[in-house]
From TrEMBL:
MF term (GO), any: GTPase activity
Every Tr-type G domain range: 7-42
Origin: domain of life: Bacteria
GO (cellular component) term, any one: ribonucleoprotein complex
Alphabetized Pfam families for the sequence: GTP_EFTU
InterPro entries: P-loop_NTPase, T_Tr_GTP-bd_dom
Gene behind this protein: typA_3
Organism, scientific name: Staphylococcus aureus
Designated name of the protein: GTP-binding protein TypA/BipA
Residues spanning the membrane: none
């Protein structure tokens, strides 16, 4: 029998092309502490 994890959440992000979905997910991951301090994460601009 598997144990159910209570600290995992699923979300869906629905938006048109170029409306910041990737930027939003990148920021959520940064704030969650998923990236190590020495890990480089490319910043994405808004394309303007």
């Amino acid at each position: 029998m598997t144990n159910k994890r209570e600290d995992v959440r699923n979300i869906a992000i629905i938006a048109h092309v170029d409306h910041g979905k990737t930027t939003l997910v990148d920021e959520l991951l940064k704030q969650s502490g998923i990236f190590r301090e020495n890990e480089h994460v490319d910043e994405r601009g808004n394309g303007l």
